[in-house]
Write a structure and sequence with these properties.
Length: about 150
């Protein structure tokens, strides 16, 4: 499966919307250089599909990429439908999906703005297995292992 990066977003503080950048450096076992959510844990990078953001836009909300605090916004694949363990390749960088959704906290910027958030169900989280540079417009390749069920 293949998608395309529409936006790369970073923030220097947790709980805020992220600012778009043209490119970013993924650091092995850390995340995106300069992003507040990076670190040695299983949620180093977050990703959200354009289709998920479009659902909220259809409800009348004026939303930009990065407003849900996602690091990478993609088009072409509904990422929340992919199983944990899926390998994600962007140029020379390799990531692995470690979590789908998260507990939402009411102190985040998007919750304060619109009263609800799609990250708890449709955002995914990844760890960086191999670092590299990523750019807006890059292809994102998703590789689901034969041992992983798409129905889990």
């Amino acid at each position: 499966m293949k998608a395309k990066i529409l936006s790369i977003n970073i923030s220097h503080k947790k709980g805020t919307t992220k600012t778009p950048v043209n490119s970013a450096k993924l650091i092995e076992n850390h995340g995106i250089e300069g992003d507040a959510h990076a670190g040695k844990w299983h949620r180093q990078v977050s990703m959200l599909s354009k289709s998920s953001i479009d659902k909220m836009r259809k409800l009348g909300f004026d939303l930009q990429y990065g407003d849900f605090a996602e690091n990478i916004t993609v088009d072409g694949v509904d990422v929340y439908k992919l199983p944990i363990g899926t390998i994600v390749e962007i140029n020379e960088a390799v990531l692995e999906i470690t979590q789908i959704g998260k507990e939402c906290h009411t102190d985040c910027a998007i919750f304060k703005k619109v009263g609800k958030c799609i990250m708890p169900k449709e955002g995914i989280f990844l760890k960086v297995l191999k670092g590299g540079k990523i750019n807006v417009g890059d292809d994102v390749i998703f590789k689901v292992s034969d041992q992983i069920s798409l129905t889990d």
